[in-house]
Specification:
Elements: E1 5-8, E2 15-16, H1 18-31, H2 39-44, H3 50-57, H4 63-80, E3 86-87, H5 91-100, E4 104-109, H6 113-123, E5 131-134, H7 145-154, E6 161-165, H8 168-177, E7 180-184, H9 191-195, E8 202-203, H10 209-216
Parallel strand pairs: 1-4, 1-6, 4-5, 6-7, 7-8
Antiparallel strand pairs: 2-3
Length: 219
């Protein structure tokens, strides 16, 4: 299993941004005078596109209301909320090692383009990925379009592509796109929920990915 392309989710996989996302979701609903989602409910939608996440949290609302709460979320996430987001331990080192091994690297995320660009710049990883796709550019996960566009742009087939993520939405997107998936269980969705989607493995830390890839070459 020598993959040519490795596609990472961002939030909950490379960056520890859960607390910030939850805080911004809760502040957005509070601003509109609506019931504030609990922490678990807010965590559960991390990985979806922003308006899809708001629809999941507020199913009785209409598209105009989802857009309003999404706008308040952006207000907090892109400036007003100062909750820090940091790379998970070993993320930078792993990305650099993968580049040294001549893997193509990409990001497929539920973030907006502006949000991802800000995060990449802040983390110092903007030049590390060959391409990226965001939820405001194509369909939200678990629709396969993000992965299909990435593979098409880089000229890599599904058999040579590995999707790495922390949610069932990542796993389902990989299945829908005909690629392999590798789960990380330190993010949003718990291990059992990820294993139901039949990933190739479920890592406890990013540091485990290098030996996992090296072992896969000998299988």
């Amino acid at each position: 299993m020598r993959f040519k392309l490795i596609v990472f989710d961002w939030d909950g996989t490379l960056m520890d941004s859960e607390s910030k996302i939850v805080a911004c979701i809760q502040a957005a609903f509070d601003d509109l005078g609506e019931p504030v989602p609990g922490r678990e409910a807010a965590r559960n939608v991390i990985g979806l596109g922003l308006e899809e996440a708001m629809a999941e949290l507020w199913p009785e609302a209409n598209p105009t209301q989802w857009s309003l709460v999404a706008d308040r979320y952006r207000y907090y996430f892109l400036g007003a909320d100062q909750t820090p987001s940091v790379l998970f331990p070993g993320a930078r080192e792993l990305v650099d090692w993968l580049l040294e091994q001549d893997y193509l690297l990409a990001v497929a995320t539920g973030k907006s383009r502006h949000g991802l660009d800000v995060a990449l710049d802040g983390a110092g990883l903007a030049d590390r990925f060959h391409t990226t796709r965001c939820a405001d550019e194509t369909f939200s996960k678990p629709h396969p379009e993000m992965l299909l566009q990435i593979m098409d742009e880089l000229g890599v087939g599904g058999a040579d592509t590995l999707m790495v993520g922390d949610t069932e939405y990542d796993m389902k997107m990989a299945s829908n796109a005909g690629t392999s998936a590798l789960a990380v269980c330190y993010g949003v969705h718990e291990r059992q929920r990820l294993l139901v989607q039949n990933p190739l493995g479920c890592l406890e830390t990013l540091a485990e990915m290098r030996p996992w890839l090296e072992r896969s070459l000998t299988i």
